[in-house]
Amino acid sequence: MNNKFKHHKTFNRVFKPGKLSLGIFLPLQVYDNDINLFNQHLKYIKQIDSSGFASLWVRDIPMYDPNFRDVGQVYDPLSYLAYIAGQTTQVALGTASIVLPLHHPISLAKTTASIDQLSNGRLLLGVGSGDRYAEFPAFNKTFERRGELFREVLQDMQTLHNTESPKINSSITKMQDLNLVPKPLHTNIPALVTGASQQSPDWIATHADGWITYPGPTTTNEDTLNLEQKIKAFRYLIPNGAFKPHMTNKWIELDEDPHYPRTPLRGGFVLKTGRLGLIELLQKWESIGVNHAAIGIQYGKRDIGETLDELASEVLPYFKTGLV
């Protein structure tokens, strides 16, 4: 058990030792210069919430870089989650991930604590150091210092969250005799580090509340060997044997044929599969210690509602961890 989050209902609903829960990645479509498409997605977000998916996730990509050919989330992730918080009741609201070096810890602490309170403690914070070089000079930040900035922003933000009138004297934040209001509902918001984030494995195992990694190849069950070894190495380093969850994600094109074999597209970035192949993959992930999988469907060719219906009725029942 993770005693830090013993009473955190959302953390304990999404993350359970030995179990895998299922979430959905936003956006649900690829941006194609028509913002009106995204304004129509609220009905699907409510469908995700009412269908029993454990979570939904948004990315932090502040600027469009043509070199990546990916606009990303489109909406600011925290503004979007604040909006979604008022339209949903139970689904966890996750970031995967906030690029910490591009944010000031005071404003980030204020916004995240506000969303956590307004959503009744449903915020999960995936955090990362960033990998899009062009964003850093745009923010007048040094790309080479992103690992150091990552640690400082995370530490300052968490201090503001869990300490009354803290004295902080970092390279970013200098304050005393001031206090952050509101605080998060449960004192701490779970922070899951994404990838290495320019940190050592020991640092991640000690300071993170969980770990988000990319799955690598997903065509065969043997493809999960490297992922299994990474999870085992991570858990070996966690102090005192505490439970810290592992999460991964996959963009899929769900074929109408349930028997369609797992087939990599776009160099493996997207997995085309029928639901039986997806269930097999998720069950394999569960067996090697993955606690949560976020599925992205924006590269699919089928109707969004139809895809979500099939996932909810045919796949989700295998991975419902239950409400807490």
Contiguous runs where pLDDT drops below 50 for at least 5 residues: none
- Element pattern in H and E: HEHHEHEHEHHEEEHEHEEEHEH
> Please, what is the average pLDDT?
95
Q: What is the rounded distance between the termini?
A: 15 Å
**Widest sheet: strand order?**
1-2-3-4-7-8-9-12
The helix content, as a percent range, equals 25-40%
Largest sheet: 8 strands, parallel, barrel
Helix count, DSSP H or I runs of 4 or more residues: 11
CATH fold topology? TIM Barrel
Could you give me the name of the CATH homologous superfamily?
Answer: Luciferase-like domain
- CATH class division: Alpha Beta
Proportion of β residues?
15-25%
Approximate shape: globular
Structural class by helix and strand composition: alpha/beta
> What Rg, in angstroms, do the CA atoms define?
19 Å
- Overall domain count: 1
Number of beta-strand segments: 12
Per CATH, the architecture is: Alpha-Beta Barrel
What does this protein look like?
One of its GO terms (molecular function) is oxidoreductase activity, acting on paired donors, with incorporation or reduction of molecular oxygen. This is Luciferase. InterPro entries: Diverse_substr_monoxygenases, Luciferase-like_dom, Luciferase-like_sf, Luciferase-type_oxidoreductase. Keywords: Flavoprotein, FMN, Monooxygenase, Oxidoreductase. It is a single chain. With 324 residues, this protein is of the alpha/beta class. It has one domain: TIM Barrel (Alpha-Beta Barrel), CATH 3.20.20.30. 34% of the residues lie in helices and 17% in strands. It contains eleven helices and twelve strands. The strands form two sheets. It has an eight-stranded parallel barrel with strand order 1-2-3-4-7-8-9-12, surrounded by four helices. Helix 9 links the parallel strand 8 and strand 9. Helix 3 packs parallel to helix 11, helix 4 runs parallel beside helix 5 and helix 5 crosses helix 7. The longest helix has 17 residues. The protein is globular. The two termini are 15 Å apart. The model has no long low-confidence stretch (mean pLDDT 95).
